[in-house]
Specification:
345 residues; alpha/beta; UDP-galactose 4-epimerase, domain 1; 2 domains; globular; binds nicotinamide-adenine-dinucleotide; Rossmann fold; seven-stranded parallel sheet; 36% helix
């Protein structure tokens, strides 16, 4: 039986994950709409320009007008200020672009008959608890971004209970791959390292580099998000999704340099430079994915070197990018990392 064509809205659709998600959903034959204010995304990522609208979700009136017109049945909400490390210095943006924007979207969507919300949260809601993080742990964020994501999760559960729409909450972590913003000096560690290499420069590691993460390749991350949206079993669930190979940043740097230079010897001037640790950076952060495995057979397939090879190929095509800094942070003081303060990248 042919499944019904659904009206689906993806927010943050010119961004890294959002644009891949739109492409995946379009292949299923649904009617897909995308919005983004292009603060962190790019038109080059938007494949269906006809159904794309430049919209800033911080604008309550314009967002309501848009939702009243489209009346989406399903929303994948990805629009965000995802600068976790910077959020201690830009809390207004973390609030406005995450919590406030989400409410501006969700309220009119409920009024217009929303059936399901797929909220992209983040592993940052766990904070510095025992790794690997699992979904039974309480949320204990260590940073402003994580606390915004944790409130967005809570509000989703509460409003779903009261107003009856279904939801799935996905907590991805350290996603990388083609179309990632590599010109943002505040986030996306692989993107920053890679852009520095494209610019013929070595990169900086905050702290001793022994912090551990598990990196998630984009092609392993988007399909389970789509599967979760259409699975009855996943309704009302909160799930970790992502890579399972936890490694230190020092090891990441080594693998990236090996993949970047291939068979050539790595030149000495590309040895990473260590800087003081950033405030509130969690040392060990990676997740357990048993729940996603049980509910939808989730298992990441791509090794770090395979994923990096693909990302490097794409990055060499777009070439070196200028890093784009904010004119001003909400809190400018001596705690601001000098890479940002002195625009070192
Ligand atoms: N990439 C990761 O490693 C990762 C990990 C955990 C969670 N997430 C979450 O996944 C989602 C997507 O992340 P991403 O890596 O693709 O980031 P991204 O920056 O590429 O995408 C976010 C998009 O949201 C847009 N946006 C920001 N504020 C907006 C506003 N007010 N109105 C409309 N659009 C706005 C930006 O222009 C950008 O295109 C985010 O919610 C992020 O918090 C990402």
């Amino acid at each position: 039986m042919k499944s019904k064509k659904l009206k689906i809205l993806v927010t943050g659709s010119a961004g890294f994950m959002g644009s891949h998600l739109v492409d995946g959903l379009e292949k299923m034959g649904h009617e897909i709409y995308g919005v983004d204010d292009l603060s962190g995304g790019f038109m080059r990522n938007v494949s269906n320009k006809k159904n794309f609208t430049k919209l800033d979700l911080r604008n309550r009136k314009k967002t309501a007008e848009y939702i009243n017109k489209i009346k989406p049945e399903i929303i994948f909400h990805l629009a965000a200020d995802a600068t976790e490390g910077r959020s201690q210095f830009t809390p207004f943006s973390a609030l406005d672009r995450n919590i406030v924007s989400y409410m501006n979207l969700l309220v009119p969507a409920i009024k217009n008959g929303l059936k399901k919300m797929i909220l992209t949260s983040s592993m940052s809601v766990y904070g510095a608890q025992q790794v690997p993080f699992n979904e039974d742990m309480i949320t204990q964020p260590e940073d402003v971004y994580g606390s915004a994501k944790a409130s967005m999760e809570t509000v989703t559960r509460v409003l779903s209970n009261v107003h009856g729409f279904k939801y799935v909450i996905i907590r991805p972590h350290n996603v990388y791959g083609s179309r990632q913003n590599i010109s943002d000096p505040y986030r996306n560690v692989i993107g920053i390292f890679l852009n520095r290499l494209l610019r013929n420069k070595s990169f900086y590691i905050y702290g001793d580099g022994k912090q551990e993460r598990a990196f998630s390749y984009i092609d392993d991350t988007i399909p389970p998000m789509i599967r979760a949206a259409f699975s009855k079993k996943c309704e009302g669930k909160t799930m970790n999704v992502g890579g399972e190979e936890n490694i230190s940043l020092n090891k990441l740097a080594k693998v990236l340099l090996e993949e970047y230079f291939g068979t050539k010897k790595i030149p000495k001037e590309f040895i990473p430079i260590h800087l003081p640790a950033r405030p509130q950076e969690v040392k060990y952060a990676y997740s357990n994915h048993d729940l996603a495995g049980k509910l939808m057979g989730f298992k990441p397939k791509t090794s770090l070197s395979e994923g990096l090879k693909e990302m490097i190929k794409w990055a060499k095509e777009i070439g070196p990018q200028d890093f784009v800094y904010l004119e001003e942070l909400d809190l400018e003081n001596d705690l601001v990392p000098k890479t940002w303060k002195n625009k070192l990248l």
